[in-house]
Amino acid sequence: MAQGKVGKTVVSLGDYLKEQRTTAQLSLRQLAQQAGVSNPYLSQIERGLRKPSAEVLQQIAKALRISAEQLYIHAGIVSPDDGVGGSVEIAVLNDTALTERQKQSLLDVYQSFLALNATGQGSTSPAAAGDEA
Q1: pLDDT, tens digit, for every residue of 26-50?
Q2: Residues 93/99, Cβ–Cβ less than 8 Å
Q3: Which residue among 5, 26, 96, 111 is least packed, with the fewest CB closer than 10 Å?
């Protein structure tokens, strides 16, 4: 395994993409052209050397005619426990009015709130809850 890999989720993403591409009987070059990304970049994604943005994942999913949500799950952007179609992450990622940077910022804030709530520090006291109303 090459050093400098982005992470396990990206490696599994690469394996999943390669499997989907093979099933669709597309060469790496054909998929890159259909998805609007460069051939070397797509190759690096498949080998786990690059982590693509949600926008690139959408383009690849469209070219493969598969669900973008499945790619988000394999990329580690969305948890499979969130439920397809109802998660905050998917709603943010699918919002065309936001830039990639804005989407990532929203997801970072959302994840920090979830982590805070998981530690019990995010709960509000009754007095604080009354102040918010």
Answers
A1: 999 999 999 999 999 999 999 989 9
A2: no
A3: 96
